[in-house]
Design goal:
The complex is a heterotrimer.
Chain A lengths: L2 H19 L1 H21 L2 H32 L3 H7 L4 H30 L9 H25 L9 H25 L6 H30 L2
Chain B lengths: L27 H24 L13 H27 L5 H33 L7 H20 L5 H29 L5 H7 L3 H54 L1
Chain C lengths: L12 E6 L5 E6 L11 E12 L2 E12 L3 E5 L6 H8 L5 E8 L2 E2 L11 E4 L11 H10 L5 H10 L16 H14 L4 E5 L7 H16 L3 E5 L3 H7 L2 E6 L2 E4 L8
Parallel strand pairs in C: 4-12, 5-10, 5-11, 8-9, 9-10
Antiparallel strand pairs in C: 1-2, 3-4, 3-6, 6-7, 11-12
Helix pairs in contact in C: 2-3, 2-4, 3-4
Classes of the chains: A mainly alpha, B mainly alpha, C alpha/beta.
Chain lengths: 227, 260, 258
């Protein structure tokens, strides 16, 4: 099978699983909203909240992403399906791209919800002029995050003592995306006097990140997951 | 299979019964190397603590630099060596495990010196401008490198055959090579360079620079010595695993004799 | 007698296979498959030692299986039957010895052979949140099976129409086993590696399974079954091989061993 065909097959399977089980919808999204509320409890300063809202949105996204990635690989580990995929000779770069695509879609929905929460809870204003940069930022960041998540998620799944590795391995790597996405979002929303034009270089960085880890992950996923 | 730099067991150490061989990891080369490193350290102490002048602004506080700069240098050297060894393991069709061991040994030594660099850097910052931490790109990237390498060492401990461990760690190391520059640049853009950077470079006089140079050289000698020894210990540990396999094989086959 | 596979000899061969569903498919081989006399060595193991977690799960396997055979692997628990099957599927790294499966040298590359092999281990490899139909369709799609073949696989393993849209997680253990076997049928493997496939199946399920295995062998596939169901599997098998203490001694085909 071609790479695209395998990726499409695996992505469809992952999305169908989510559609039937609704775990991300019913469990992770409430968790994300909860994190946003807890930030408000901890920071206790409305003006500060509005100012740091972009950072909080992306932090909440990262923490929720850990759960989604673990779920993505838990469905494989439950009945030895990842093993079965390997035995079936399904190409691992296709598995990587397929799972990344499904993860990206789920993350995108999650981020939309988080943005909505920020508008509601932190009084964030989204003007019409912000939307282009905002959209591109979210797309670029989501791509990079899903590649990294799938890559290290595969390594950190399965045997005990492995799942706890996921945050340690993944979070340092996504730091550039956190910085870039937050700065670009601030620029889009005009927080702290940032102007739109400052955001585009960060988008460039995130696109570079996404391309590098997309390519790296496609090559490396098989080695990390294989025995 | 012995590599060129693995020492042969001393005749006095081999015992006739049981086969327990005491094999030291030192060779003539490492003994000379160790002596040179010791001499270098002595020079460093002499120059760093006694002979070099106080800084005009920081007074005696500047002496931390003689530990901090070489440690940071070593941290990055170790990182590069791990990256190159990992690539070497993956590249060569023969897949020699010595590259994997060098990568692992270098990472262990590197983590140690990264920790030293971070602590001394933090102390120096406190003395120089009153804060334990600044978000400049070098310090932050070093912190990230530190954490990444702890993750790398955790993955090395996951088990499996030697080649599985080697392949996984090698891939992880190369991903780290990808990650660290990205972290560096994003932090750099985030917090552009302060004057602190130029303070470190601009106002050192010649004797201080020389002491720094002595420090870098002797730390490098120390690094090589540590990595060589550690690599040999890892090699022996792998050999023990293999011998264990022979023993387990024999036991397993004996099991078959009994039941048939 | 072992045949040979000549690699690099451009001789297209056309083959008529009767597959497990009862239809006839014509398959053209463009890579080199030279079949000398009647049998082809599908599995050829010499002194294979495989290690898992430091423990030698296989301590010396010598086995030769020719195409079309149904081989029963017999032995006590912990003998290495599961490991032998997993090793043939390219899942276990090989420490010592030589291993050739379907012409692939497993000491060199363990991944190329997997496409042509079907392994059913203790786990079923199913997605609990998806329906029976989803699962079989997915695994069939990995080899490009058509919707008809997928439907036929499900019928073959007695999965009634009413079960098609039930989530696998809600099925009984036996029904899940049937689903896993249907997925295996849909994949049209050349070498079937089954680890205690009868376990959990009711009498009808076991009959279906036996019939499927006979059909598979008749149409050119090879089957290795590890089972404690000695009577049933013994009747099904063309040969019985003993596995004890990680050691297998069955270097040549023909006749019962031990």
């Amino acid at each position: 099978m071609t790479l695209v065909a395998v990726a499409r097959l695996v992505a469809a399977k992952d999305l169908r699983i989510e559609w039937r089980s609704r775990v991300v919808l019913n469990q992770v999204m409430p968790f994300a909203a909860l994190v946003m509320i807890l930030f408000a409890f901890a920071l206790d300063n409305d003006a500060a909240l509005t100012r740091v809202a972009p950072g909080l949105v992306w932090l909440a996204a990262l923490f929720s992403m850990l759960v989604v990635v673990q779920r993505s690989f838990a469905v494989e580990a439950a009945d030895g399906a990842l093993d079965a995929l390997r035995v079936a000779g399904v190409r691992s770069d296709g598995i990587f791209l397929g799972k990344s695509a499904a993860l990206a879609l789920q993350l995108a929905v999650l981020e939309a919800v988080l943005l909505l929460a920020a508008v509601v809870l932190y009084q964030v204003d989204i003007g019409a002029g912000s939307i282009p940069l905002l959209l591109v930022t979210f797309v670029a960041a989501t791509l990079g995050l899903s590649f990294v998540g799938t890559l290290y998620g595969g390594l950190a799944s399965g045997a005990s003592g492995r799942e706890t590795l996921l945050p340690l391995l993944m979070l340092p790597v996504v730091a550039p995306v956190l910085i870039g996405a937050t700065r670009a979002t601030e620029a889009a929303l005009g927080t702290n006097g940032a102007s739109s034009s400052e955001g585009w270089p960060w988008v460039g960085l995130m696109v570079l990140f996404g391309v590098l880890f997309g390519a790296g992950g496609t090559l490396a996923f098989g080695s990390l997951v294989d025995e | 299979m012995t590599s060129p730099d693995t020492p042969t067991p001393s005749a006095a150490g081999a015992s006739a019964s049981g086969g327990a061989v005491r094999r030291p990891t030192g060779t003539t080369f490492t003994r000379w190397l160790g002596a040179a490193a010791l001499v270098g350290m002595a020079w460093l102490v002499l120059f760093g603590l006694v002979l070099s002048p106080d800084d005009a602004l920081q007074k005696k506080g500047v002496r931390i630099l003689y530990i901090h700069v070489p440690s940071a240098w070593l941290a990055y050297l170790a990182f590069i060596v791990t990256g190159v060894s990992s690539a070497a393991y993956l590249y060569k069709r023969t897949r020699s495990l010595i590259w994997d061991r060098i990568a692992g040994a270098s990472a262990e030594v590197g983590v140690l010196f990264m920790g030293i660099a971070l602590v001394t850097g933090s102390l120096w910052g406190r003395i120089s401008w009153g804060t334990y931490w600044t978000w400049d790109s070098r310090l932050t990237t070093t912190a990230f490198l530190f954490i990444t390498y702890i993750g790398y060492l955790a993955v090395r401990g996951l088990g499996g055959s030697h080649h599985q461990r080697a392949r996984r760690s090698a891939v992880l190391a190369l991903l780290a090579v990808l990650e660290v520059p990205l972290v560096h640049f994003s932090v750099r853009w985030w917090r552009p360079l302060h004057q602190q950077e130029s303070v470190a470079e601009g106002k050192l006089d010649d004797l201080m620079l020389f002491s720094l140079f002595v420090g870098i050289v002797s730390f490098t000698l120390l690094y090589v010595w540590l990595v060589l020894h550690r690599q040999r210990v890892l090699s022996m540990a792998d050999a023990v695993d293999d011998k264990g396999l022979d023993g387990a094989l024999a036991a397993r086959r004996a099991e078959q004799e009994v039941s048939s | 007698m072992a045949g040979s596979l000549e690699v690099g000899h451009p001789a297209p061969v056309t083959c008529h296979l009767t597959d497990a569903i009862g239809g006839t498919t014509r398959v053209g081989f463009t890579e080199a498959v030279s079949v000398s006399s009647v049998s082809v060595a599908v599995v050829d193991l010499r002194g294979v030692v495989a290690v898992q977690g430091g423990f030698p799960v296989l301590a010396g396997a010598d086995l030769a299986v020719t195409r079309g055979e149904i081989v029963l692997l017999r032995g006590p628990n912990g003998a290495g039957k599961t490991s032998l099957l997993r090793m043939c599927a390219g899942l276990l790294p090989i420490e010592r010895g030589e291993a050739s499966v379907l012409g692939h040298d497993l000491t060199v590359d363990r991944t190329a052979v997997r496409r042509r092999v079907g392994l059913l281990g203790h786990a079923n490899g199913l997605y609990g949140d998806l329906t029976v139909a989803d699962n079989v369709a997915f695994w069939g799609a990995t080899v490009g099976a058509s919707a008809d073949e997928i439907a036929a696989s499900m019928r073959r393993m007695g999965l009634a129409d009413r079960l098609r849209d039930v989530k696998v997680g809600a099925l009984s253990a036996g029904q899940r086993r049937r689903t896993a076997l249907a997925c295996l049928v849909a994949r049209r493997a050349e070498l079937w590696l089954l680890d205690e496939p009868h376990a959990g199946l009711d009498a009808a399920g076991r009959d279906d399974l036996d019939a499927t295995l006979r059909d598979a062998a008749a149409s050119g596939a090879t089957v290795l079954v590890a089972s404690h169901e000695l009577e049933r599997a013994g009747a099904l098998a063309t040969r019985v091989v003993e596995v004890v203490g990680g050691v297998v001694r069955a270097p040549a085909a023909g006749g019962e061993v031990g």
